[in-house]
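Researcher: Last one for today. Full complex below.
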Amino acid sequence: MATFRIKRFNPEKQPEPYFEEFELDIPDGATLLDCMNEIKWTLDGSLSYRMSCRSAICGSCAVKANGHALLACQRQGEHLLDNDDTITLEPLGNMKPIKDLAVDFTPFWDKINKVKPYLEPKDEPPAKERHQSPEEFLLIDDSSTCIMCGACYSDCNTLEVDDNFLGPAALAKAQRFVGDSRDSKTLQRVQDLSESGGIWDCTHCGECVERCPKPARPFDRIKEIMTVALEKGVHNNNGARHALSFTNSVKRSGNLNENRIPVESMGFFNIPGLLSLIPIGLRMLLKGKVPPIIHHSIEEVDDVKRIFKELDQ
Amino acid sequence: MKFALFTGCVAKGATRELMLSTTKAAEGLGFEFIEMKSASCCGAGVVSEKSPLLADALNARSFSIAEKQGLDIVTICSTCQGTLKKTEAHLNEDKEYKEKVNDILEEGGHQYNGKTRIKHFANILATEEGMARLKSRIKRPLTGLKVAAFYGCYVLRPSERSDFENPDNPTGMEDIFAALGATPVYYPSRVKCCGFPIVMMNKDASLGMSGNALQDAIEHGADVVATGCPLCHLSLDSYQPEIELLQKKNQSIPILHLPQLVALALGYTPTQLGMDSHIVSTLKINQILSGSSASAH
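Model: Here's the assembly. Have a good evening.
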């Protein structure tokens, strides 16, 4: 017998959510969604959650199981049991619960819309379709697989502390158009995406890649946008300056010059940014934690320089 | 046991106490760590923002250096570990790409053959052999010390490249703490991000992440947080005086590098391990440990 510990919430009856436990014999091969349906149909008809296709296509049934977002129809109930034969179910994170496991997706969709998720073509429509080579299509193939389930948005570490962040799903969708050979607005797109709340606010935690039930892997797509932004010369922001300063440091010495990178990331004319470095700088100085003032190169640094040169970097 | 030590940049710069304590921990454990002095920076997932091929070529060159010595690589930084494993996956998953990278390396006399394994220090310890070695060499068990792990994202995600079993709910670090005689503290934030990668871009969000994690560790009763990543250490220790959440409640918690914690149990003194160079005082740890040894006597 398995215990399903489900977070219940009904603001019409009581303001605070609470956990309720249901006992269920998990039928052989049942998905988590099958189990949730069984609970709803046989134990408590008031349990609320979204579902539709049961085939990991529609993206409706994402919930948090044991603290991590997943598609309920894509996982076997048995596989999710913890050591106490319990599965803890909660609504997706970073969005407001409406009732039980259903959350309000409004901010999620607002952010998808913000990245202009439609083609802005280069010219007038041709008589027939617009062609892409297989190579061109491969660049946007992965991001095209997103089913908008919100699992990545739920577990994104930046969104937990900053709801201004566009989030992994919208940025993966943005890459779908930044990388599209038929689109005419690449530069404008990467400029917009380099603003506050965009690509450079991603904290590299990899949660979105881990939770994504499809090959969309948002963090990988975010990095692709970063590369395009740097190639297109969109350098006037801390994220781009940081990437350039970092790479140049490795080019010069083979390793990172930690004294230079904060200053170069802020930008030499960014007075508030530079001032913000003073407290940490002083603390490190007083404790003797400032990296060596004379920066040393690695041994055989010439070979590293040669690789940079060979790759035109 | 002999390894090629990929130090990473931060252990030679802002957290030199990590290098110091790694040397001591290795000595105490009877590991031979040969520093890779001609290896370049792993790129920290930042060089690959500029050029993924460049980042992979530089890391493949580092692998080649260890291969020539016939050694596996040990890392002491979660970020180095994850970044190197990413390059390894790129090279091993695509033969043509590997050949392309090897063509770039050829003139420098390097070649990647995929013979070198890349292991984080924690994953060397968290094996049957590592644990046995650790337990046999402990001189001062860390009895009474409640230690909260902070893993560092890059050793856990993506899970297919992680050496930890069950990266969503790992126990490798906690198993090490228990072997050292300490009491592991389990708390949800132990597998989350410290926020360091965006401290230059969005400091409020960055310190929000580290603040939430530390608050979580404190609320779960931790005396100290131990991490396998010097970038997490910078975030959690060096920036701690700026974390508002803690300041409002007048709280603080010392942060140790994993090798410091290990070497303490191996009998080295806090000063030998550079614990006096931390921003947040580590004296509380000495008090707890001397308290428990006094009561044991």
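Chain B touches chain A through 66 residues (CB under 8 Å). The radius of gyration of chain B is 19 Å.
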